[in-house]
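Please, structure for the following, as tokens.
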Amino acid sequence: MNCIKLLTPVFALACLMASCGNDSKVEKYVVNITCASSAADSVTLKIYDADYQNLRTLNAGRLRDGRLTLSGQIKQQAIAFLDYGTKKPISFILEKCETDIEIGKEKAVIWGGVANHRFHSLCHNVYTLQKHIAAQEQAYRKALADSTLTKATEASLLKRHKTLSDSLQATILATINRGDEVAMLAKERFFNLLDSTTLKRLK
């Protein structure tokens, strides 16, 4: 299995796909937490309740020697937020399987099931496309400043920029329109990146 490392404004996330999913007969979730932050003491696990459209606390506990295991029963996988008192809560999908979350000083690493793998693969693709788009914009500005922006160069840069931008929009749209937990988390994370044309295509 391959570990996918993702860079975000707050965390660098990683995920491995495990042999579990929403169709598993196992009704129990297990979240193993390891935290290197000395500022963190207690941890609260919240999930998004689709029936009532709000967040509710599912479990909580105190770290002991930087470690804590939370477990319990769930009817189906759900969007979850791990609040450990510092920075932004870690968002992931709580699945009917074992999920390991390692919280470092600069990054959080998540080892989870199929749904988490799908979500973090999406994040990887989105951040990669954003990086390439930024590189095209930088190249355009540099060529403009250096007076080396010929018509051919400009056309090439603009074409490449449009291709990358269209790919970014299509990638996010395809995931959101699936309508599952991964879609909901993707919408919460990337909705502000969608342009007006793509917004009209949301289901």
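The beta strands are 4-7, 12-15, 28-35, 42-49, 54-62, 67-73, 78-83, 90-94, 98-103, 108-111. The longest strand covers residues 54-62.
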